């Protein structure tokens, strides 16, 4: 249900948003990585990802965190009311994916989150792809298919990651150096962050400094 509601397709070359990886060409996709072993380094990255989702810092990921991240991004970019509602709707649909359709007042602990991501990576699950695409769409606040420097800062701000770290991460993601991030560039960084266990990967700080 969430996938159908979330998809917004416009044909004839105009940008479309959906939970599908179709049309996204990565230099290295999920299946090009070995299945994560759950190393200490890998778990540290996923705990960092969890912390960035736990927007209110109470130790659990909840629907409230996704609502708060939407409000924070909206405030940072000074979006109008119509766009703010679209961002909030997007985050609530992303919450449905992360919570796997459970009741609205459910909460996800750090251990539960790490285990869920590990299982999703081990099975190359559609769940992981949905989460990555939803985060890309959240960062692309104006729906044009690209992420600007300001949008990336807003993405960090919305997730509670110090904005001062955005510039360095943006530079790593912007592999062609054109000053904006394509969906492929952003998603490549996210895929590597979650699947790679290489401590020297350039994407190790995809969501800011590790916890």
Automatic annotation (TrEMBL):
The keyword Repeat applies. Residues 41-76, 161-196 form the EF-hand domain. It comes from the Eukaryota. Keywords: Calcium, Metal-binding, Repeat. Signal peptide: none annotated. SUPFAM superfamilies: EF-hand. This is Sarcoplasmic calcium-binding protein.
